[in-house]
């Protein structure tokens, strides 16, 4: 009984118990990454329209993960060669993910990654058929 009282006292003093606000925290949606040399955003999340934008004109490497409703979208720019950007696109829904490597022309129009109203990755402004599937799996079983 003495050990139990001591343990309760330590939890009370250090505040090591469960967080009161754990269930009220909002999902972590990252807004943008800023390239310090040019002060422009590589990635931008339009919360109102549920669209993530990738500026193909920002020099790689850049990466960003966007936590959304039931999963996430991770974007990583790899390199530019012959005015074409190569990047990895990883949509993840409840642990299931696929990593695509895509090459698109560098353009003044940003790439778009839509998110459905259910909070899952949706359509893209480019065809995934032209992308190389690197691997897929489930984070819960790896």
TrEMBL record:
PROSITE patterns: PROKAR_LIPOPROTEIN. This is Lipoprotein. It comes from Gimesia aquarii.
